[in-house]
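Progress report, Aim 2. The chain analyzed during this reporting quarter is listed below.
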Amino acid sequence: MSVGGAFGAAVLQVVFAILSVIQWLVIIAAVISWVNPDPRNPIVQFLYRTTDPMLRPFRRILPPGRTGGIDLSPLLFLLLILFLKVFLSRLFLIPATF
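Predicted structure tokens for the chain:
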């Protein structure tokens, strides 16, 4: 493996780690939204501040009002992350580790 190949693989692993952290933040925010969380809780505020900007475009495409009140934006966003991981791993011929 060349130095450039090793560097590219390391960068890709960092990108995968960042995508995994974002993926877990979205999952946790979605699960917390099922209960009635205290909006003043710092953890809830952090989750919503970090995930809402990422989910907003998906909510514009498929608003909860058109889906019977169910917010499908986390599901669509998680599918996008999965697509990115598979696409990047196939692009760089690196086995995907999810």
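The longest helix spans residues 3-34. The chain has one domain: 3-91. These observations will guide the mutagenesis work planned for the next reporting period.
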